[in-house]
Specification:
Strands 5, 6, 7, 8, 9, 10 and 11 form a 7-stranded mixed beta sheet that branches. The chain folds into 2 domains: 2-81, no CATH class; 101-232, Acid Proteases (Cathepsin D, subunit A, domain 1). The mean pLDDT is 75. The chain has 6 helices and 13 strands. With 233 residues, it is of the alpha+beta class. GO terms for molecular function: peptidase activity.
């Protein structure tokens, strides 16, 4: 208990110094925020140490318990400090397990970037969120617009019976008639757009939905890096 009160006195003195030197911005050569964080950690360290010593454990057992809690604290701090890097690793693992999963990153300027790996079939496919539904789409720079297949359109909440298929477009299977529509929300990873114009193909005329240039042109740029394509918001 004597040790505890000595530590409390030191922490109290540090708090008084912090308050007295608030306007100067530094205490004992440290910035106020750093000094305050040191006091905070010192308080928890003192409570933990007194709790271990007051439990009646032997010195060896107390040292092991203290080492465990110190290690746990450092591990939690490390996880917090590297949380964005760990999120990036988790996204890359997901992309490897689920082909087409977009890997989102944020630049130092705060802009979103999304990376997509080439699929086993040699094409770039991405899982896009359209009106809250995950749809696998082919990134096609040769297509001028976003075109949804009939199945994907139904999943995204479009009712084909209310659409007018009057616009002819050229596809790999020949000319098909499509209908105009608008998606309330469309996201690829961290890149999101609202009120997006799309075309919907007639049933059986389009095997896979296409992510065309009408979406890509809303980006600041995109680049091909070997087996990866990077979309930049």
């Amino acid at each position: 208990m004597r040790f505890f009160w000595i530590v409390m006195a030191l922490l109290g003195g540090g708090l008084i110094l912090l308050i007295a030197n608030h306007d100067s911005g530094r205490v004992l050569g440290l910035e106020n925020a750093t000094f305050a964080a040191t006091l905070y950690l010192g308080l928890w360290g003192a409570v933990l140490l007194v709790g271990i010593l007051g439990s009646g454990m032997r010195i060896g057992e107390a040292a092991r318990s203290l080492a465990f809690w110190v290690f746990l604290l450092l591990a939690l701090i490390a996880v917090y400090q590297y949380r964005y890097e760990l999120q990036d690793v988790a996204s890359r693992v997901t992309a490897g397990l689920i082909p087409g999963s977009p890997v989102s990153m944020v630049t130092s300027e705060g802009n979103a970037r999304v990376m997509v790996e080439r699929s086993a079939n040699g094409h770039f496919e991405v899982i896009a969120d359209v009106n809250g539904q995950a749809l696998r789409m082919l990134i096609d720079t040769g297509a001028s617009s976003i075109v949804l297949s009939d199945d994907d359109a139904r999943r995204a909440g479009f009712d084909p019976s209310t659409l007018r298929f009057q616009i002819p477009v050229a596809t790999a299977n020949g000319t098909a008639m499509v209908a105009r529509a608008r998606a309330q929300e469309m996201s690829i990873g961290a890149i999101s757009r609202s009120d997006v114009p799309v075309y919907i193909a007639q049933p059986g005329r389009l095997g896979q939905s296409l992510l065309g240039m009408s979406f890509i042109n809303t980006l600041s740029g995109f680049e091909l890096r070997g087996d990866r394509i990077v979309l930049q918001d």
